[in-house]
Design a protein that fits this description.
The complex is a heterodimer of chains A (about 450) and B (about 325). Chain A folds into 4 domains: about 80 residues, OB fold (Dihydrolipoamide Acetyltransferase, E2P) (Beta Barrel); about 160 residues, 3-Layer(aba) Sandwich (Rossmann fold); about 70 residues, Ubiquitin-like (UB roll), CATH 3.10.20; about 70 residues, no CATH class. Chain A contains 14 helices and 16 strands. In chain A, strand 14 and strand 15 form a beta hairpin. Chain A is about 30% helix and about 20% strand. In chain A, strands 1-13-12-16-14-15 form a 6-stranded mixed sheet, with helices on both faces. A 4-stranded antiparallel sheet of chain A has the order 2-7-6-4, with no helix packed on it. A 4-stranded parallel sheet of chain A has the order 10-9-8-11, sandwiched between helices. In chain A, helix 11 crosses helix 14. Chain B is built from 15 helices and 2 strands. With about 325 residues, chain B is mainly α. The longest helix of chain B has 25 residues. In chain B, helix 11 runs antiparallel to helix 13. The chains are: A alpha/beta (about 450), B mainly alpha (about 325). Chains A and B meet through strand 14, strand 15, helix 9, helix 10 and helix 13 of A and helix 1 of B.
């Protein structure tokens, strides 16, 4: 079975209650919608305090190519525009909406019917994806339409769909593939059409045999979609590793997937594209896994973007008393929250509640040169060396040792028996090298 | 609710930590320790106990009273040094020399360079070299094996290792075809029935420990295979040129410290290269140097000096042999 070659680790999977159906959560009394929920040029807020909004109505504008908009997930009144802590801990502008009823824009098709025929043209699909605020749902939130517009001189050969979900604990993509597999594949077909590629591969790790079986069966009714089962290994969901696992091609250092003819998209992005293209529905809701070893009701919740996370935690049975850390995202790459006064965004895949006893890192000790970090690095880097160079401020050599190729997957720190802050050092190193270069 | 912990990703950690790795190495050393006690009797037990106890003591005392640190003797690394040092000594070495060797290993080679992880040379091997140079007679008077439950008549006998014996014979111009019948056969060497340092005697016990460390992913195959393989091939070539003066490669493999060195000493994480390529080069250097010293050097045994010399090359090897970067 296929997988990537260099490095990788095998954390325990902790896919708790993955077979339970997802739960649709009701509306909050007040929603908090961040103005910027994408990677790229910032958007401007186009509503003001007191404005009435409907579900699906644009709340921001963004003229930039690498930009994306948010749409109101609620109907009601804008009560204020304020700043809140985002998942990274920065205070960011957000629109607070007092929810009144649930009135949707009439242009949105809210019927349950699955619409299979894609009538829009290539250009119309791309325009729709942009208009509906679709971003990559795998976590990076990169505007989806940008990837669909292949730069001149380059050709897209393969569309690669990430159904890997290699992060432990997370099950939202799995639920989506099981519950809405057909819609996901229609979305993938739309992406295929927009890119003009012959084949789309959906990579799924073989710890999800039901999803592999379900989508393989469904894919037979679609043209040019192939499900590729993959051997379980973290970080298989990372773009470069996934491309290698499926096609055997390596994205050259400093280049993009399109340089070797590949476009990668998450399976949940496929679902969002389906809703945008076939149902005219902006990205206003998503699936969020709320999980943890002692969480009472571990579930996947279908929630509106902007739902306060306190509401999700309550729905999952409240915060267990021995909780020591709450993570936005998965345990390998997610961010530890330091304020619960925040809300679901387009990139919120999970809330993970870790016990106090698991919340702390082990005590840092001397490097014993065991080379486990070197063996684990999926990019072929030497984390022990890079972190020492950062500690010694040797940024010139740091760059020559390929620090910028680090994908921040965390395999080095995960495998370090001395609990050395390897990834932390590498992040500082990457940031410093980037800053020094931009000053030159 | 408690205050929330904030820390960077990843929030999961593998079950590995330094003490777990070190104690697994200790377990891997147990079969060799047991066979040495079996073949050399209580003397071996005394040497092992003294080496281990003094290594632990010196590390604890230096950390507590000289460096004013929290002692970390429970991490198992000083225990490994003690065991490995004992494996590199003849069982009849005076106790005070064993203690002095332990002090050199821990105090000079390990702690003076900054403790665990910072020493460029393998502490046990450097201490062996120190003892060999300081007390050459005591370090090369090998007790003839006297099994734990064997006859006491052989008690006071000492004799050369098979290697020392062969080398002396070659130096006197005696052809190997006449010398070889007088050394133990392969089968006996394999299980340990020949003279030598404590840990040199049984290839099977060493391999058992090596397999355990491979299974536990503490070592990889690169260093032992490159070390043993290159020594074998080099000895084979020499032996093919003139079998009367160059010893058979199998004898190289199964006698002396080659197995012990290749499996337990050269694979020491702290003093070996980081990348697989570098480890192959390191193992190759160890193997070739071992045979060179054994054949042309002043000492009958070359493994410890070969590894120590290669230890010194590790920073250069790390610089020159790097893993392949993805996409480059």
């Amino acid at each position: 079975m296929k997988t990537f070659k260099l490095g990788g680790v095998h954390p325990k999977e902790y896919k708790l209650r993955a077979e339970d159906p997802s739960v649709t959560l009701g509306l909050p009394q007040q929603g908090i919608v961040f103005v910027n929920q994408h990677l790229g040029a910032p958007s401007q807020c186009i509503v003001a305090k007191g404005d009435k909004v409907k579900v699906g109505q644009p709340l921001t504008k963004n003229e930039n190519f690498i930009g994306s908009n948010v749409h109101s997930p609620f109907s009601g009144t804008v009560s204020k525009i304020d700043t809140f802590h985002d998942a990274s801990g920065y205070r960011k502008e957000a629109i607070v909406i007092d929810v009144e009823g649930d009135e949707w824009l009439e242009t949105i098709d809210r019927s349950e019917d699955i619409k299979r025929d894609i009538t829009l043209s290539k250009e119309e699909i791309i325009a729709k994806v942009r208009e509906m605020g679709i971003v990559g749902m795998g976590g990076a939130c990169f505007p989806a339409h940008v990837k669909l517009m292949v730069p001149e001189g380059k050709t897209a050969e393969y569309l690669i769909i990430n159904g890997v979900e290699c992060e432990p604990y997370l099950t939202d993509d799995y639920r989506l593939m099981i519950e809405s597999g057909e819609q996901c594949l229609i979305g993938v077909s739309a992406l295929r059409k927009a890119l003009g590629v012959k084949t789309a591969f959906i990579g799924i790790e073989n710890n999800k045999p039901k999803a592999i079986a379900h989508l393989t069966k469904l894919a037979q009714t679609f043209e040019g979609i192939e499900v590729v089962p993959l051997q379980v290994k973290y970080p298989q969901g990372a773009e470069k590793q996934l491309i290698y696992a499926i096609t055997g091609r390596e994205v050259p250092s400093g280049k993009l997937p399109i340089d070797i003819g590949c476009i990668v998209s998450n399976v949940s992005t496929g679902y969002a594209v389906y809703e945008a293209v076939q149902k005219n529905k902006p990205l206003i809701d998503r699936m969020v896994t709320v999980t943890g070893l002692h969480v009472e009701k571990v579930s996947n919740f279908n929630v509106r973007i902007g739902t306060p996370i306190s509401m999700l935690l309550e729905a999952a049975g409240g915060i267990p008393t021995n909780t020591g850390k709450i993570i936005n995202g998965g345990p390998m790459m997610g961010k530890a929250l330091f304020s619960l006064d925040t809300a679901v965004t387009k990139g919120t895949s999970a809330l993970l509640l870790m016990d106090e006893s698991d919340a702390h890192r082990g005590e840092e000790a001397n490097c014993i040169r065991c080379s486990k970090c070197v063996q684990a690095c999926p990019m072929g880097l030497e984390p022990y060396l890079l972190s020492a160079l950062v500690e010694n401020d040797n940024f010139e050599r740091l760059e020559n040792e390929n620090v910028m190729d680090c994908i921040e997957c965390g395999c080095c720190l995960y495998s370090c028996p001395s609990y050395r802050p390897l990834l932390d050092c590498l992040r500082v190193g990457k940031y410093t090298v980037r800053t020094l270069k931009s000053k030159q | 609710m408690n205050k929330l912990v904030i820390s960077g990703a990843p929030h999961l950690h593998s079950p590995d930590n330094v003490p777990k790795i070190m104690w697994a190495v200790v377990i891997a050393l147990v079969p060799t320790a047991l066979t040495s006690v079996y073949f050399f009797g209580l003397d071996a037990l005394v040497t092992i106990s003294v080496a281990v106890a003094s290594c632990l003591f010196f590390e604890w005392a230096i950390q507590k009273y000289l460096l004013k640190q929290e002692p970390t003797v429970t991490d198992g690394s000083a225990m490994i040094t003690g065991l490995l040092l004992a494996f590199n000594l003849p069982s009849n070495l005076p106790i005070w020399m064993t203690i002095l060797g332990s002090f050199f290993a821990i105090g000079v080679v390990k702690m003076a360079f900054g403790g665990l992880g910072k020493n460029p040379f393998n502490p046990a091997l450097a201490a062996r070299a120190f003892l060999l140079i300081s007390f050459p007679v005591a370090m090369t008077s090998w007790p003839v094996i006297r099994p734990l439950f064997g006859e006491s008549a052989m008690d006071a006998l000492t004799g050369p290792t098979p290697f020392g014996f062969l080398k002396e014979g070659i130096a006197q111009g005696i052809p190997l075809s006449e010398l070889m019948p007088q050394v133990p056969t392969y089968a006996r060497k394999l299980v340990g029935a020949h003279g030598g340092s404590l840990g040199e005697v049984s290839a099977i016990a060493i391999l058992l420990g090596g397999l355990y460390m491979l299974w536990k992913r503490i070592i990889t195959w690169h260093i032992p295979v490159a070390f043993i393989g290159s020594a074998f091939v080099f000895a084979f070539i020499l032996n093919s040129i003139n079998p009367e003066i160059y010893i058979n490669p199998w004898v190289h493999l199964l006698t002396g410290g080659l197995m012990l060195g290749a499996v337990f000493m050269a694979t020491d994480m702290v003093t070996s290269p980081m990348s697989p390529k570098g480890q192959l080069v390191f193992g190759l250097g160890c193997g070739v140097l071992t045979v060179i010293i054994r054949v042309w050097g002043a000492y009958p045994e070359g493994v410890s000096f070969a590894i120590l010399i290669m230890n010194a090359f590790v920073p250069l090897i790390d610089r020159a042999f790097k893993p392949r970067v993805f996409g480059k």
